């Protein structure tokens, strides 16, 4: 049993709703009353503000718990107050649900996908709710758009919040009593993409061409569109797996600006070499006879040279032979290279006859 249902009613949901249902209720109501869809409806801004403020409380489990137990007036006062009236509150909700008091733990909201922080107006009104447009933008930036059926949520607004700049924020500042604090600009995100590269390309360096598709805004219509662009990626000699090649402003356009695009190098598996830092390791398998009496192998280096690798024996399993300056280039030390290391693996016979065992005992 809850103390009241006003905030739930504003979102068209029940007090038993889950967090997902609260998000869906806010999504539906916010889209219905968004000012950009109701330019001829003077009450839309207030309705939009009301559903945003309802979501701001209900999406935070702690605030919702307090609201369910004590009601909205308790939250607006910041706790018990002796025979104090909290004003019109939700009854018609002029100017939203009102300011929130300095109740402990009311500074931020972890429940709605990001933290919404109350900002002080410096007057008798205590604390104000977050800017409704900030709540809306953050909700959809954090994945709220995926909860519905719209292919492009911003197309519903003729260009949407990202295309219209700060004009709506200005409207909400006026509606909130002319507060002068600037709304925070969302942080531009970074998109990471893998860039598979061969060991030979990392040795010599390479120019990789990548055709990308990104979402932009059509300046003429303000609507979203897809744009194709060919990028040339400069892979320098000696780059390692995990190296990031950065393109600033080449991702999707979004509210905070344009995304940065980072290509992260991944090394393709090589048939001969395994890389460790700037060194290249080549495994050579020999049989037991070769390990005991001597062996020879020819190995092709990463730059195509043929070298003879040998040992007179006996050769222990795991034995290594180092060849300086035949490894990978050192990207931070031009002209220098790592080493090539030959690692010996001894293949033992699966079985021996009694005669062979006797002979080995005599020899060894």
Beta content = 15-25%
For the largest sheet, list the strands in their spatial order: 10-11-15-14
- Please tell me what the overall shape is: elongated
Question: What separation lies between the terminal Cα atoms?
Answer: 88 Å
Q: State the assembly state of the protein chains.
A: single chain
Beta strand count: 15
Mean pLDDT: 77
Could you spell the SSE succession in H and E letters? HHHHHEEHHHEHEEEEEEEEHEEEEH
Tell me the structural class: alpha+beta
As residue ranges, the low-confidence spans are 81-96, 98-127, 149-183
Query: What Rg, in angstroms, do the CA atoms define?
Result: 33 Å
Give a quick account of the main beta sheet: strands, pairing sense, barrel closure: 4 strands, mixed
Percent helix range: 25-40%
The count of helical stretches stands at 11
